[in-house]
Design brief:
Strand content of chain C: 35-45%
Number of helices of chain C: 11
Helix content of chain B: 25-40%
Largest sheet of chain C: 10 strands, mixed
Distance between the termini of chain C: 29 Å
Strand content of chain B: 25-35%
Number of strands of chain B: 12
Order of helices and strands of chain B: EEEHEEHEEHHHEHEHEEEHH
Shape of chain B: globular
Largest sheet of chain B: 6 strands, mixed
Chains: A alpha/beta, B alpha/beta, C alpha/beta
Structural class of chain C: alpha/beta
Strand order of the largest sheet of chain C: 4-3-7-9-12-14-17-20-22-24
Radius of gyration of chain B: 18 Å
Oligomer: heterotrimer
Distance between the termini of chain B: 29 Å
Number of strands of chain C: 24
Strand order of the largest sheet of chain B: 6-9-10-3-11-12
């Protein structure tokens, strides 16, 4: 792409935000927006020369024509959520009608804009983790985010039920910048389900950013389910910070979407933390899914486990880039990273780049990446026991995905994913 | 040969050995028995010089020298040999090369010339026959891919090659079937002379049917609570360790 | 390895023992780089017009390129206008026999442990010695000629076998391939050339020794090895340089062509001066090595890298023909302030192609050691296989070990496996050795040698011995 064309595309994309009015926003947030806007102007959109985006082209995302309004009328979507707490966002805006809450001691769950009004903690934490100065999509989100979810667990508070955050892209060509903030204070515990869906009427682009603070001894699990339509684009970023003795787990399930890019960055700032990051990406058609993870071990005695698995069908392309960074101070680090892929056709592609960057000597770090196919022997074995080839395949693909699924700590989500995989691979050739 | 007095040792602040007294003379075989966690393997590790253990009190005199002041390799050179409970694997380093390096380094420190290849190989042949060590194992990497029995035989083979004055067999019998046990014990017996001494550490009496000890000590909670001859081992086999625990409870 | 034990007993000095300077009068081009310098080099070498054009085209490419900065290394960028691009030991006349070689030069090679005297060599190794990019002597030439094998300096090949050079030069590493390859293509002064005719198994190891002698000189040698159908050759290169405070640039290009059913084994022992303890001086080793495999052929790269201040090197195989095989075995040791970014690229284009990458990195003191590799399986490369194992060993807490593999698979019938581990030498292993009477240094040498054995086993015997010696010297004093 020539330089002038790149500038033209950038101008075209940024024009969408020109008429947005953020005068309603609180002062500190406005300041953050202004700072981020400076970075938006300065930074370029990534090209094939940008190492961090080597395998994913964003041209078609920024060239699109989008709308940024709150949809009129009813939304025809079934939200069967088995929880007393659910925040629903539509096209980046908070939908009061679709959301419901039940009060629980020490658990503050609301829209971000409602919370901004009277929370000093937001002032302290908001936009402190997002990498606005490096990543243009993060800067765009900070500068132009509409609304999002805010979850705050006070010291030693425990959320008794999973907390749902659901983002819906409605109307054709919606451009959304939802922004979430999760703050887990010392000793608190919660499970979150973060789901993105769409009404599938056309092409939308969701650029979501979630900042997560896990304080000492706190325990958080996020189950992220990406199930937008097959024409929708999504860039989702989670910036996580973990303090001493805390546990954090995130499971990312990418089940649909035309182009999905996940940026997951976890900073380990205290000793004896444990971290799990799991991912499952099931691709078909011309889907393109890119998972970038970065675990930064800064302190000694921390453990991180990473397991990402993908199945690439049809003409789809999967990308995995996982980086484990072990700082000189982070002795006795245990870091395990594994990426396994199955390529089902000659037109599908997987690009895998598991990286280790290690500066401490007393560590146990390993990574592995495998790419292969269904085990023909196993397939034959199952068929010789009377299974049709179709169901034998489904059984094996299910088994492949099962390692990741079993990490889900929310039973209803687990069932949902299992059901999805079942029906998904029953139909396979 | 070796005199252990009031030996106390701890790991990460937890005291494991709480005052061991033991003297072993040349030509003697001593056995130390005791329930799990009594400190048997700690004693072996402390004598060999593993640095995770901190000696907080007491002394160990080995042939007139303060053993505790010596580095692990100097203890080995002075004639202390430990047959490990779990021999470590060293990928890519052949057994033969490993031994030759060890022997020649010991010889060098003693002011002796290195062993000629011919003499060395002759010794390897003789000594490996002693424990019926498969010829192939000699050229394989140290302990890599060895079965449990092969590892233990390899330990005794090394002991034969290095000709120590004082050998500690740390649970050499655990995980061995009866045939392997017999082979290992035979090897140890053949190596016994009036000038060397052996300390056998074991959880089971079975080994002592093959290596007959002059003394049997019972270790419990980091102390030797009972000493006797080989009949003590039989008694332990019959009654278990509970009566010792009760006894120790009374005397403690 | 029979002599392994003897080696372990040998006590070698920890100083870089190849760090002497030889006083040989040399013939130098003025500093700087422009088209005139290139014309000067080409004229000096009496080159045909097409080769001058090749150089100029590469130079024009290079001018438009930027020095790459994606590697995990940090160094002040060289000033390419502050270098001599041509420096040759001054020859009084053409050399007819060994007696006519400059005695100082002969002595240099004796010090390096390389005898150019055919009578003195017992082992069957033919040597081409290249000093400051100019080939000074090739041994065993006549004997090889009987079999139709051409083994000579690159310049000689240009004069004597222009059709072969013209046919293959730049076919594996095109002149515009990358910054350093383009630079090399413009200014290379000499190197080795080797051609093995159809069906011939080369009966001896062919070997090139490279040495940088002059100060402020870049070394840009060019190696081209062609194994014609169903032939076999094992080729070795060794590298040393004097100790100097300033950094010196080495940007070589090696091209291998293995035609149908041919096999090339290419081994490197790289021991350029790594710089001193404070990180001053040392060679910048920016090398492009690539082999092209036609049907059923095999190229195997083995490298032992202990030298250079900065290494940037990815010996690669383009597996173009069906059923071809590529291998890469590497030991890279970095100590002091050395930095290495090295690995391999395996490009699978043909069907049923196989590749193996075994990389063993050792990092000590303040050094940084990175593995960077690409395994690319194209859509048509059905039923292809790759296995990659990269292990890193860390010694001390100021060094770093990094792994950056790129894996790209574009069909459903291929399998790729990548494994990597990073750890330090096991305390248990050291204790076990000590209990058997070894001191710490011996124990570590023993364990390290075991760790790299899989790779050293790939080297011809005499070089394995040399490599092992080098490893010990490189790691001496890095523990404790």
């Amino acid at each position: 792409m020539s330089e002038t064309l790149a500038i033209k595309n950038k101008d075209h994309f940024l024009a969408h935000f020109r008429n947005l009015d953020f005068s309603f926003d609180v002062d500190f947030s406005k300041t953050k927006r202004e700072e981020a806007e400076k970075w938006v102007k300065k930074l370029d959109f990534p090209t094939s020369k940008t190492e961090y985006w080597k395998y994913t082209r964003v041209n078609k995302l920024i060239k699109g024509d989008y709308r940024m309004d709150f949809p009129e009328g009813e939304i025809d979507i079934d939200l069967s959520v088995p929880s007393k707490n659910c925040i629903v966002l539509v096209n980046g805006y908070f939908s009061k009608e679709l959301s419901w809450f039940s009060a629980e001691k020490g658990v503050n769950f609301s829209s971000l804009s409602d919370a901004k009004e009277n929370s000093s903690i937001i002032q302290k934490k908001f936009a402190t983790l997002s990498k606005d100065q490096d990543e243009i999509f993060a800067a765009v989100n900070t500068a132009y985010h509409q609304d999002g979810a805010f979850l705050h667990l006070e010291k030693n508070a425990v959320a008794s039920e999973p907390l749902y955050i659901i983002h819906i892209s409605d109307s054709e060509s919606a451009l959304s910048n939802p922004r979430n903030l999760i703050i887990m204070e010392e000793g608190s515990e919660a499970k979150v389900v973060l789901k993105t869906i769409s009404t599938q009427k056309g092409t939308s682009f969701t650029n979501m950013l979630t900042e997560v603070f896990v304080d000492r001894n706190a325990n958080l699990e996020i189950n992220k389910v990406q199930e937008e339509g097959e024409q929708d684009y999504q860039i989702a970023c989670e910036q996580v910070e973990q303090k001493k003795d805390s546990h954090f787990k995130i499971n990312t399930f990418t089940l649909n979407g035309a182009l999905v890019r996940n940026n997951l960055n976890i900073d380990l700032l205290g000793e004896h933390t444990e971290t799990w990051l799991n991912g499952l990406y099931l691709l078909q058609g011309k889907q393109h899914v890119d998972n970038h993870t970065h675990v930064f071990h800064r302190e000694p005695n921390c453990v991180s486990h990473e397991l990402y698995k993908g199945i690439m069908d049809d003409q789809s392309t999967g990308v995995f880039n996982g980086k484990v960074f072990v700082h000189r101070e982070a002795q006795k680090t245990n870091a395990y990273q594994s990426n396994a892929n199955m390529v089902l056709t000659d037109d599908a592609t997987i690009n895998s780049k598991p990286e280790l960057e290690i500066y401490a000597d007393d560590v146990q770090c390993s990574h592995g990446s495998t790419t292969g196919q269904l085990d023909e022997e196993a397939l034959f074995y199952l068929r010789s026991r009377g299974m049709s080839e179709k169901s034998a395949r489904a059984v094996l693909l299910n088994a492949f995905a099962a390692d990741v699924v079993e990490h889900i700590g929310v039973e209803s989500v687990k069932e949902e994913i299992e059901a999805f995989i079942d029906s998904h691979y029953q139909g396979i050739k | 040969m070796i005199k252990i007095e009031n030996l106390h040792a701890s790991i990460e602040g937890t005291e494991i050995l709480r005052g061991i007294n033991l003297e072993i003379k040349a030509g003697e075989v001593h056995a130390i028995m005791g329930p799990n966690g009594s400190g048997k393997s700690t004693l072996a590790s402390v004598l060999a010089g593993r640095d995770e253990y901190e000696v907080t009190e007491g002394s160990v005199n080995f042939l007139g020298e303060d053993l505790l002041e010596l580095e692990p390799e100097d203890r080995a050179r002075a004639g202390v040999f430990l047959a490990f409970q779990y021999p470590v694997e060293i990928p890519g380093v052949s057994n033969i090369n490993f031994l030759k390096t060890a022997i020649n380094e010991i010889r060098e420190k003693r002011g002796q010339d290195p062993l000629s290849a011919k003499d060395f190989l002759q010794q390897v042949k003789e000594k490996s026959a002693l424990v019926e060590l498969d010829g192939k194992l000699k050229n394989r990497s140290v302990n890599e891919g060895f079965s449990g029995g092969e590892k233990k035989r390899n330990e005794i083979f090394q002991m034969a090659m290095l000709e120590p004055k004082f050998s500690i067999l740390d649970e050499t019998d655990s995980g061995l079937d009866i045939d392997a046990l017999r082979v290992v014990a035979d090897g140890v017996n053949k190596l016994k002379t009036k000038d060397n001494a052996t300390l056998v550490i074991t959880h089971y009496q079975r080994l002592l049917d093959y290596i007959v000890p002059d003394f049997v000590h019972v270790l419990y909670k980091g102390r030797i609570v009972k000493t006797g001859d080989k009949n003590l081992a039989l008694e332990l086999e019959e009654k278990g360790y509970d009566w010792i625990k009760d006894d120790a409870g009374v005397t403690a | 390895m029979a002599s392994e034990e003897e080696l372990l007993e040998e006590i070698t000095s920890s100083e870089y023992k190849y760090g002497f300077v030889t006083n040989i009068e040399s013939d130098k081009a003025p500093k700087g780089l422009n088209e005139d310098i290139i014309r000067f080099i080409s004229a000096k070498k009496n080159e045909p017009e097409w080769l001058l054009e090749y150089r100029l085209k590469a130079f024009r490419n290079w001018e438009k390129m930027e020095e790459p900065d994606w590697a995990h290394v940090n160094y002040p960028k060289p000033d390419f206008q502050d270098l001599h691009y041509y420096s040759a030991p001054k020859k009084k006349k053409e050399l007819e026999s060994l007696d006519e070689v400059d005695p100082e030069l002969l002595e240099t090679f004796e010090k390096l442990g390389i005898s150019l005297d055919e009578q003195k060599r017992l082992t069957g190794v033919a040597v081409d010695a290249v000093i400051d990019s100019v080939s000074v002597k090739t041994t065993f030439k006549d004997k090889l000629a009987e079999l139709g094998i051409i083994f000579c300096s690159f310049s000689e090949a240009v004069q004597e076998h222009p059709e072969l050079v013209k046919k293959y030069l730049g076919t594996v590493v095109p002149p515009g391939d990358n910054f350093y390859a383009a630079l090399n293509s413009a200014v290379f002064t000499d190197g080795s050339f080797c051609y093995i005719p159809k069906g011939v198994r080369c009966p001896m190891e062919l070997s090139t020794y490279f040495r940088i002698n002059e100060a402020n000189t870049g070394q840009f040698e060019r190696t081209l090895v062609i194994a014609d159908e169903s032939s076999y050759v094992s080729y070795l290169e060794g590298c040393t340089a004097p100790m100097r405070d300033e950094n010196q640039l080495h940007a070589a290009v090696v091209e291998l062509v293995a035609l149908d059913n041919a096999e090339i084994k290419y081994s490197t022992i790289q021991n350029w001066y790594p710089g001193n303890k404070e990180g001053k001086g040392g060679i910048y080793n920016f090398v492009t090595k690539r082999g092209l495999c036609m049907e059923n052929s095999k190229i195997s790269w083995t490298q032992v890298e202990t030298g250079s201040a900065v290494t940037w090197k990815y010996p690669s195989c383009v597996l173009k023909g069906d059923n071809s095989v590529g291998e890469f075995y590497s030991v890279a040791v970095t100590s002091k302030h050395q930095q290495a970014d090295t690995g391999s690229k395996m490009i699978h284009l043909g069907k049923n192609t196989k590749s193996t990458i075994i990389s063993k990195g050792i990092s000590a003191m303040q050094a940084n050691n990175s593995y960077r590799g690409l395994v690319h399986i194209s859509k048509n490369a059905t039923n292809s296989r790759n296995f990659t194992q990269c292990d890193s060993l860390l010694m001390g807490n100021n060094c770093g070990a990094h792994t950056f593999p790129y894996i790209e698979v574009k069909n459903k019938s291929s399998q790729v496996e990548h494994e990597a581990t990073t750890s330090k030498i096991g305390e248990d292993q050291i204790f076990y050795c000590k209990q058997r009477g070894m001191d710490e240094e011996t124990a570590i040498n023993l364990i390290v040698n075991g760790y790299v054995k899989e790779v050293l086993n790939q080297l011809p015997m005499e070089f394995a011995v040399e490599a092992q010696k080098l490893l010990e010297i490189s790691l001496e004093g890095s523990v404790g």
